[in-house]
Amino acid sequence: MKRSLLIVSGLLASAAPAVGQGLTGAGATFPNPIYTKWFDAYNKKTGIQINYQSIGSGGGIRQFTEGTVDFGATDGPMNESQIQAVAGNVHHIPTVLGAVVVTYNLPSLGDAKLKFDGTLLVDIFMGRVTKW
Question: What is the pLDDT of residue 17?
């Protein structure tokens, strides 16, 4: 399952910006399409512009840590050392959820069936099974 988290500082979470001000964020590419819709709707309702740069989770964490954006988004939570590098509090807020689907297309199997059970899928994702 793919998750995206919005990472905000304690001050941002508790303070609402005045009309005409804006917010800047950066991070994960996965949630960008829905963020674009949400932020546009929010702007129409409030007049507050939210500029989100879809640069990848690592870039979002880096910019958030450096203080160059108001919030960051990432596909997974920041680890303890990343959190410690931020001046201020960090709040992880899950925003979107996506799925990962394992598929295959092997016409050479004919009527034979592949069996993907939980154990095999874990081994594939853990790198223990590399040819299947």
Answer: 52
Q: Name the strand (E) or helix (H) holding 22.
A: strand 22-27
Evaluate whether 63 touches 109 at the Cβ level (below 8 Å). no
Residue 116, pLDDT score: 82
- From 105, 104, 109, 102, select the one nearest 124 (Cα to Cα): 102
Mean pLDDT of the chain: 87
Domains of the chain, by residue range, sit at 2-98
Q: How would you class 30 by CB atoms within 10 Å of its CB: exposed for 0-12, middle for 13-18, buried for 19 or more?
A: buried
Tell me the whole-structure pTM to 2 decimals.
Answer: 0.68
C-alpha dist (Å) from residue 34 to 30, 37, 54: 9, 5, 12
Q: Which CATH architecture has domain 2-98?
A: 3-Layer(aba) Sandwich (3.40)
How many Å apart are CA 25 and CA 27, to the nearest integer?
Answer: 7
| Cα 90 from Cα 68, distance rounded (Å) | 15
